[in-house]
Structure formats: structure tokens, C-alpha cells
Amino acid sequence: SDLIKSIDGFKLAYNNKNLYIHYQGRDKMATFKNAATISNFEEAFTKGDVIDLKLQRKSGLDPNRDNAGEGDIRLSFAMVDQKPKAILYEYVVPGTKTPHSFAAPHHSLTVDKITLLNGIRIQVDRKENGDFTFNAVVPLATLGFNPKPGMKIAGDVGKVLSDQTGTTRID
Predict the structure, then answer these.
(1) Does the pLDDT value for residue 130 go beyond 60?
(2) For residue 163, what pLDDT band results from cuts at 50, 70 and 90?
(3) What digits encode the pLDDT tens for the residues 54-100?
(4) Are 89 and 78 in contact (CB under 8 A)?
(5) For burial by CB atoms within 10 Å, which of 22, 30, 115, 123 has the most?
(6) Phi-psi category of residue 105: left, alpha or beta, with phi > 0 → left and psi -120 to 50 → alpha
């Protein structure tokens, strides 16, 4: 597998079948709690702690573009009904008739397709001292992603923190 160096506690790797996501850090604020439910999982990023991966599945897109392009995704990991789940946001899907719209005070966003993924292995380990470890194994086919040797893609990793109840974002 091709291992990417640690970036702010995140490591990514992949092989011909899976994408591996690892996060390790110390954060007494993050509890990996989230108030999302099966009926509102689309907005999990507004309801508590989330681990995020944004990924460009196609090479050749303008890296300085202002808007997401076809193939750009956000893969969020959050507690949904108190179980760790993966949520796939596909920004541009040709033929979409009813996209999802999100509005914030300073910008708005449209996502063509949002899917709660099944069959994703997710492990979250919290220690009393604040150590936090997250691991996920995501089949590349689930993401519609088939990386080729020499393919240049862009991505971003991060986390959203909430208060201790998992209902108010603080970072």
C-alpha cells in the first residue's frame, strides 16, 4: 500500500481493495459524540464530532477551482444513532434532480447525493487521558474510486469538534 505521512495525526493508506484511515491524537474536548440519527444523518457535521476526508476521485481537475467538481467527495465518520457510521457526500452527480442544500451564515453548499454507507469497519478508542484513536477500512468500490499508478489526486483530512453533549460545534 502507499502510505502518506502523518498530517496532524492523520494517516491514509490504500491497496487495490481498501482505503485505510487512521487518526491519533490527544484531545480532551473530542468525545466522538454526535446527535445525528438515521432520519437526519445528512447533517451529522452540524450535530457533533466528525472525522472528515475530502477526496478528489478524478485527476486533472483545476486545483484552484471555487466549486466542487464531478468526482469530488466528502467521507464523514460520525456516530449515528450511537453507532459509528460512514456518510458519503458526492458533490456533483450528473442527472441529479433533487440535490441537498445546506446554508451557513457565510456560504451555502449543494450536494447531489448523500449515502449512509454499510459494510465499513470503524473503530474508535477513547482513553481517560484524552488519547483518541480512530481507524476505518473503506472498500474503494464503495467510494466509486479506482486509483491508478501515477494518478494525481488532492484531498484534505480533518475533524469537527462539538461540546460534550455532541450537539453544539465549538471548532
Answers:
(1) yes
(2) low
(3) 998 888 788 788 888 888 999 999 999 999 999 999 999 999 999 99
(4) no
(5) 30
(6) alpha
Count of alpha carbons within 13 angstroms of residue 1, beta-carbon side: 14
Please state, in angstroms and rounded to a whole number, the distance separating the CA atoms of residues 89 and 91. 6
Q: And the C-alpha cell for 117?
A: 454507507
Q: Are 56 and 71 in contact (CB under 8 A)?
A: yes
Identity (one letter) of the amino acid at 17?
K
Residue with cell 467538481: 69
Place of cell 467521507: 75
User: What span, in angstroms and rounded, lies between the C-alpha atoms of 56 and 106?
Assistant: 24
66: exposed, middle or buried (C-beta count within 10 Å: 0-12, 13-18, 19+)? exposed
Determine the Cα–Cα distance for residues 76 and 45; give it in Å rounded to an integer. Answer: 8
How many beta carbons lie within 10 A of that of residue 17, not counting itself? 11
How far is it, in rounded angstroms, from Cα 79 to Cα 73?
19
Question: Amino acid identity, residue 171?
Answer: D
Which candidate, 51, 29, 41, 26, places its Cα nearest to that of 136? Answer: 51
Residue at 163: amino acid letter: D
161 grid coordinates: 469538534
